[in-house]
Amino acid sequence: MLRGLYGAAAGMIAQQQRQEMLTNNLANANTPGYKADQASLRAFPNMLISAMDTETHQGASAPTIGELTTGVYLQERMPNFRQGDINETGNSTDIALLQGVMPEGELGRPGALFYTIQAGNEGEVRYSRNGNFTIDGAGFLTTTEGHYLLGTNGQPLEVGDENFTIDENGLLTSSNGDAVGQINIAYAEDPMLLVKEGNGLLRFTEEGELPTAIGNADISFQLQQGFVERSNVDASQTMTEMMNAYRSFEANQRILQAYDQSLEKAVNEVGRIG
């Protein structure tokens, strides 16, 4: 009976974690460049149950009853790097990154492209798909949190004011016609090696930095000024999945309550001396 308690509790924990993940996705449905998290439920290894009766099966193998499940768990959360819809804003500081057909990596997954961002006081490199940029007091292109957008030379891009222009390859020209530089676009052969750090930033978990996609003949992309990539969260599908997770949580909760009532009767009523 206690094994049933453990299985129901494991199911409740897994559905609670799934609900939290879906809630976070829905909360970021309007965040530019946000990539929805996805995960799958996996079962713990099953146990093979056999009848143990030394009196009737002495010297022979015990008959097999069947398998006993030991619960489920939520496997690691993985972002879905599918391209989001492109929305026109008319703001010169909004830049949408449109990636073409990407080559597949060794694991059969297509690669992904990202902006290169300088984050933190020590200049750590992070990556992002959020093209909602702004200009700081010194005239540099930054994220809304104040992190510098980096060029192909690894330095922040100083555009001066909002009257700059950008071509489809990321070449920037200031309002007075001077060439500013080129936005660096990083290429991740396996996007699953990137983990979310908040504020739209992703960290590469391996040594070094992601290689640039600039000049790579196998990679095609286009930058569009005045547009921004929307979140790839499907709000209606997410709501449906949240309802399913809630119902599954309730079902496991009822099972847990039934086991609790049975244990209560076993303790308080079975074997009572009248």
From TrEMBL:
Residues 113-169 form the Flagellar hook protein FlgE/F/G-like D1 domain. Residues 5-35 form the Flagellar basal body rod protein N-terminal domain. It comes from the Bacteria. Its main location: other. It is found in: Bacterial flagellum basal body. The keyword DNA-binding does not apply. Belongs to the flagella basal body rod proteins family. This is Flagellar hook-basal body protein. It comes from Alkalihalophilus lindianensis. The lineage of its organism: Bacteria, Bacillati, Bacillota, Bacilli, Bacillales.
